[in-house]
Design brief:
Number of helices: 10
Distance between the termini: 34 Å
Order of helices and strands: EHEEHEEEEEEHEHEEHEHEHEHHEHEE
Strand order of the largest sheet: 14-13-15-16-12-17-18
Largest sheet: 7 strands, mixed
Radius of gyration: 25 Å
Helix content: 25-40%
Structural class: alpha/beta
Strand content: 15-25%
Length: about 425
């Protein structure tokens, strides 16, 4: 099955007309994107956008052989002119299956927002799924029916799609749902479409998509569905560091937003009687996907040693605070009387657990050595120990990010 992307942008394109934002200002030349539309084997047109015929011609194709034009979402603005000779465009009722004279089979997939997704199966059996902007599939079962491991036997369900085209930047949870249902697997080619100005184009877009196991291609690209393509290599261990309110926690969460069942490990505890801390915790909890689970603990070694879904640890600086509490490392006398040695044992166990971890792990920490020198010996001790811990953990991670002013800088990986 051959697929030509006549456009890959959001419904209002990229750059947006008259938009002064930085992303639109830099989305020029090859980074510009027309509204998403797909031509499948020259026979099926998914979404009709202005200039579709010209875009097809530029890609070396014609729309003369199109037998079905399907829309995925309500199209705002003026009506799009239907090129001569094309069948009337329309949307299909959820669940309905069309069998075309070309041999393609198209099934309408229900969404959780206004719009329709389309599953297209080629005569030779290759399968792709195309989702509308801002949409995620509704009513998908998980692989064991309730969020556990893969099903087996007759209940194994359909095989993963060969290709997924979706709003990866706007609805990463759609990708997570499909992964949980076993419909996106390690070999599924995930292509980001409906790309708008929410993410700066170019290297930053590529970086964020790679974290989700996805990629973007320029307008006019022709792909062969089912053809082998190297899927972005997802790092198993990532350390995200940065200063206070730099955006490091949000960056860490975004890295796992397209994966199901993430275990979020909060090392800060409840801090009963501290309303400001409760407000911080609530802010973090409210922006996390509903499918994630939360564990409030500093006992990280067993979690790192276990199997399971991705692990997000926020953060190592609070873990270190707890570790220093446990060995009474704050007082000078206790530090010299064995506190330092006891802390070295605890941090060594944590670093060894990170080194041995087999599950996907994203860890968050703080950079505290670039600001004011603490006025107390215990404050300076914490600063120094956190610097040592960060360096040791970073040495065991394939991917290392420094977040400054909300911008992630790749230091490794």
């Amino acid at each position: 099955m051959e697929l030509t992307l006549l456009g890959t942008g959001a419904p209002d394109g990229l750059p947006r007309a008259h938009c002064p934002c930085a992303a639109c200002a830099t989305a020029r030349g090859p980074l510009a994107r027309a509204a998403t539309a797909l031509l499948v084997d020259g026979a099926v047109l998914l979404d009709l956008t202005p200039g579709a015929a010209l875009a097809a011609a530029r890609a070396g194709h014609s729309l003369s052989g199109v037998r079905q034009v399907l829309l995925t979402h309500p199209h705002d603005g003026p009506a799009v002119e239907l090129p001569a000779g094309l069948p009337t465009a329309g949307r299909v009722a959820d669940g309905r299956v069309l069998t075309l004279i070309s041999g393609h089979r198209v099934r309408a997939v229900p969404m959780d927002s206004p719009g329709t997704g389309y599953e297209v199966t080629a005569p030779d059996g290759e399968r792709l799924l195309y989702l509308p902007p801002g949409g995620a599939p509704a009513g998908l079962p998980t692989r064991d029916g309730n969020g556990g491991g893969p099903r087996s036997g007759r209940d194994a369900g359909p095989a993963p799609y060969d290709m997924l085209l979706a709003d990866v930047t706007g609805r990463p949870d759609a990708l997570a749902r499909l992964r949980a249902a076993g419909l996106v697997g390690p070999t599924t080619d995930v292509i980001a479409v409906h790309i708008g100005h929410e993410v700066p184009p170019g290297a930053e877009l590529d970086r964020r998509l790679a974290a989700a196991g996805a990629r973007a291609v320029p307008d006019g690209t022709t792909l062969t569905v089912g053809e082998y393509h190297a899927v972005p290599d997802l790092p198993r261990r990532t350390l995200v560091t940065g200063g206070a309110r730099s955006g490091k926690s949000l960056e860490a969460e975004q890295r796992l937003a397209s994966f199901p069942g993430v275990l979020y490990v909060a090392t800060g505890g409840d801090r009963e009687g501290d309303p400001e801390w409760r407000a911080r915790v609530a802010t973090h909890r409210d922006r996390r996907p509903g499918s994630w689970r939360t564990a409030e603990t500093c006992d990280l070694v067993p979690l790192l040693a276990g199997e399971g879904p991705p692990l997000l640890v926020d953060c190592l600086s609070l873990w270190l605070t707890d570790a220093m509490d446990r060995v009474d490392a704050w007082a000078d006398a206790a530090w010299e009387a064995g506190g330092e040695e006891a802390l070295r044992v605890r941090t060594g166990e944590l670093v060894a657990a990170v080194r041995a971890a087999r599950r996907t792990v994203v860890l968050v920490t703080n950079e505290v050595g670039s600001g004011v020198v603490p006025a107390t010996a215990s404050g300076r001790r914490f600063r120094d120990e956190l610097g040592r811990l960060n360096a040791a953990v970073a040495a065991e991670c394939e991917h290392l990010l420094l977040v400054v002013a909300g911008q992630a800088l790749t230091l490794r990986g």
